[in-house]
Amino acid sequence: MGRVRRMVSRPVVIGVLLVGLVAVGAGVFWFQPWKLWVDDTVREAAPAAAAGPGGGAPRTLAVGELISHEHSTSGTVRILELPDGSRTLRLENLDTSNGPDLRVLITDAPVKEGRAGWHVFDDGAHKSLGSLKGNKGDQNYALPAEVDLGRYTSVSIWCDRFDVSFGAAGLRRV
Hints:
Elements: H1 2-31, E1 41-43, E2 59-65, E3 67-68, E4 74-81, E5 87-95, E6 102-107, E7 126-131, E8 136-143, E9 154-159, E10 164-170, E11 172-173
Parallel strand pairs: 1-8
Antiparallel strand pairs: 2-4, 2-11, 3-10, 4-5, 5-8, 6-7, 6-9, 9-10
């Protein structure tokens, strides 16, 4: 019995340890747990009109307040139009958790409170405005000209890795 135990146990133990090590490594890569303790703060100034003829202050087209979904999230979303006709989505006083593969989405989905709103923002029409620059602060994202604010009525801080909204805001036209 002792002899069988020695022959089986050593390779089995080594195999189990190797499989466990690979599983832990994959989990760390996939979940990126260190981001729970690391904040990325961004302080971008609001876009300003270019000096010269026709200059003027940006005009607010829509506004919304972020609500929490998967993670505690707060801040304000503004859609600004510059005198040249370009538009910017601006996040102000953003405060959310950091996470893997976070994106800023503008969507046609209604904003729902609680768990009902966690997974809806990639179901219908949506446009990614790019990776979230930081989980705290103020930041600007160029809004493509083809985005119709009559159709795209919400914004989500979206975790593309796990297909879940960290937080979202309904846009109210001003």
